[in-house]
Design brief:
The chain is of the alpha+beta class and 206 residues long. It is 31% helix and 29% strand. Strands 1, 2, 3, 4, 5, 6, 7 and 8 form an eight-stranded mixed sheet that branches. The termini are far apart. The model is unreliable at 6-21 and 112-116 (pLDDT under 50).
Amino acid sequence: MVVNSCFFSVTPHSQISNDSTANACQLTIRAADKRDLHRLAQLLSDSFHPPEGLKALLYPFLKLGIHEDLRSRIKSSSPDYICLVAVAPVFTAAGKREEVAGTIEMTLSSSNIWLRGRNRSTYISNLAVHPSYRRQGIARKLLRRCEQTTLEWGFKEISLHVLEDNHQARQLYLSSGYQLRRFEPSCSAWFFQRPRRLLLHKRMSD
């Protein structure tokens, strides 16, 4: 299962508990590991496949598929892939714990895996932020970390897809320096009257 690569439009299905205090100011961004799998699967499922209407019947299966895909990617430890997680400390009556505030994945563009030394490009997908942490700059921080990692990997260009009607995401990317490269042709988008995917890219200096 491949999760939608576009920035999400989320409904608050999974909320932070009422007795907790979230602190995004002390946010930490690190590589995800197996301890994050359950919370990441929950966040991505809620973000890309909110359990609304008939989709609620499929939600457990979609969540399981996302969990297993994530587990496989993280376990592979590929040098050409990274899943980042933004975590914030949450203080409850029981003490302190970590809350997953957001996540993003990055890999080499599929067309560039065999051209590592020549075609300098990485690809971002699955950017999601928990609704309780939105409008706090977390998505932008995750983007910047991916850009920094891209330079560390020896590349200077980064790309991503976004849906044409996802205006909030487009504003985020455009204000972060991403530019439109092309509209992705899609027969299904035309036939089912769905929004087109836009390919955006950003070229960075050292």
